[in-house]
Design brief:
alpha/beta, four-stranded mixed β-sheet, three-stranded antiparallel β-sheet, 13 strands, about 40% helix, globular
Length: about 425
């Protein structure tokens, strides 16, 4: 689930003049798209989501014969509205796959063009590309690949007298730091909590699925979630973080909780980096020193390449596209997944799918970006596993687990009982009926 993206900020002209190395006909050359073409592309929240305009403008700078026009959808109801348009034959030529959960629906509905030829020319530098392959055929390419980090407020750690995280933190060290922060902040007279855990199921279930050996969303066995839920409940009960009931009743926003220094730590996706930068610039967030670290690990064995989770965000071509536009559409996909687009996106704080040295340099060159080695390590070094493994059953299973999450975190159902019920429902309603 994503609530993301900062307000649009102007980018220097140099960014649009970057060497855009991934075009349909080779490095640093405009694509031969066969003459003037207008492509429509889906988008949402255009006034506050800069990546769409950035992609289009950067591509058009290299391909002046192609014009990109946006078809804007409601962010909350994006998939519902897009699905309706595709079914009615009025869908855009290019459309964004917001997460992996609904990718299989579009693919199985034969609403995505085969773009295996595009994927075959991208090489091995594009993170998340394999998630869009079904039975050997690729139906979309990623232009960004978010991962979940541990954000931390350096000033609050200093005030509490607690050593900040590093790349070796396990969950045991996180728990100890949480207790030390709670005590230290209280002693310093700070009203801040040790941590803030947002209400999404992702905050518990995503890391549990990624970090637990043998865990399988489609197995119907959700016992692997138990340690992660018990830890979260213990943190609530200890007062180290706001409880789930308060967060839901008061509709707390994670951006405000961390951005106004109500919490010293927060697990959140990499999209929040751009949001926090923009909010500190605008004054919506306070001025303080911060950084991001790898999510705590199940054990110390993963410290060289910490395990986290996150879905890619992809772009596909409408299978009903006019054949005369196909060449231009594929050229756009080639560009969007390549280093040129990645560098442009990194320059506005977006985490692209391609992470090469120029991309990393552009990302950490953004004004206000943390420059410490731990943040750089976290950005470049991780094993990001899909939150929504590609399967026809994923969406239905995640709906069951969303209800389970609410039942556990609200305290209405004990952890083990809730997870047993979830498994029973998964088998009877989804898995055994497939």
């Amino acid at each position: 689930m994503r609530h993301r993206h900062p307000k649009w900020t102007a980018i220097a002209a140099a960014v649009t003049a970057l060497s855009l190395t991934a075009t349909a006909c080779g490095a640093d050359e405009p694509a031969d798209t066969g003459g003037p073409v207008t492509l429509t592309m889906s988008a949402w929240s255009l006034n506050s989501t800069p990546e769409f305009k950035k992609l289009a403008e950067s591509f058009q700078a290299q391909n002046p014969d192609v014009k990109i026009e946006f078809k804007e959808y409601d962010a909350t109801n994006y998939d519902t509205q897009l699905t309706a348009d595709l079914a009615a034959g009025s869908g855009p030529d290019l459309y964004i796959l917001k997460n992996l959960k609904n990718f299989i629906t579009y693919q199985a509905g034969e609403q995505l063009l085969d773009v295996s030829d595009v994927a075959g020319g991208l090489g091995d530098k594009v993170n998340g590309l394999g998630n869009y392959k079904v039975d050997g055929v690729t139906y979309a390419v990623p232009y960004r690949q978010d991962s979940w980090y541990l954000y931390y407020n350096k000033d609050l750690f200093t005030a509490a007298g607690v050593t900040p995280p590093d790349e070796t933190w396990t969950w045991a060290e996180y728990e100890k730091a949480s207790a030390d922060l709670a005590a230290g902040l209280k002693a310093a007279g700070s009203p801040a909590k040790a941590a803030y855990q947002h209400v999404w199921q992702s905050t518990v279930q995503g890391l549990a699925l990624a970090q637990t050996s043998g865990a399988d969303l489609g197995s119907g066995d959700y016992g692997y979630l138990a340690p992660y839920y018990k830890r979260a409940l213990e943190q609530q009960q200890a007062g180290a973080q706001v409880d789930y009931g308060t967060a839901t009743t008061n509709t707390l926003q994670y951006q405000a909780q961390f951005g106004t220094q109500q919490a010293a730590m927060m697990l959140m996706g990499s999209w929040y980096v751009a949001t926090l930068l923009a909010q500190q610039k605008s004054g919506a967030a306070q001025s303080f020193q911060w950084g991001f670290a790898p999510a705590p690990q199940a054990d110390a064995g993963a410290k060289d390449k910490p395990i986290t989770f996150g879905d890619p965000t992809g772009i596909g071509v409408n299978a009903a596209i006019d054949e005369g536009k196909t060449k231009a559409a594929k050229a756009f996909l080639t560009f969007a997944a390549g280093e040129g687009a990645a560098t442009a996106l990194a320059s506005i704080g977006i985490t692209p799918a391609t992470l090469t040295d120029p991309v990393v340099q552009a990302y950490f060159g953004v004004q206000g970006m943390p420059s410490d080695e731990l943040s750089k390590f976290t950005f470049t070094t991780h094993d990001t596993r899909a939150e929504n493994p590609v399967s026809a059953q994923t969406a239905a299973l995640q709906n069951i687990l969303q209800e389970t999450h609410s039942a556990i975190m609200s305290g209405s159902t004990p952890v083990d009982e809730a997870l047993t019920k979830a498994g029973e429902r998964a088998r009877s309603e989804v898995l055994e009926s497939k």
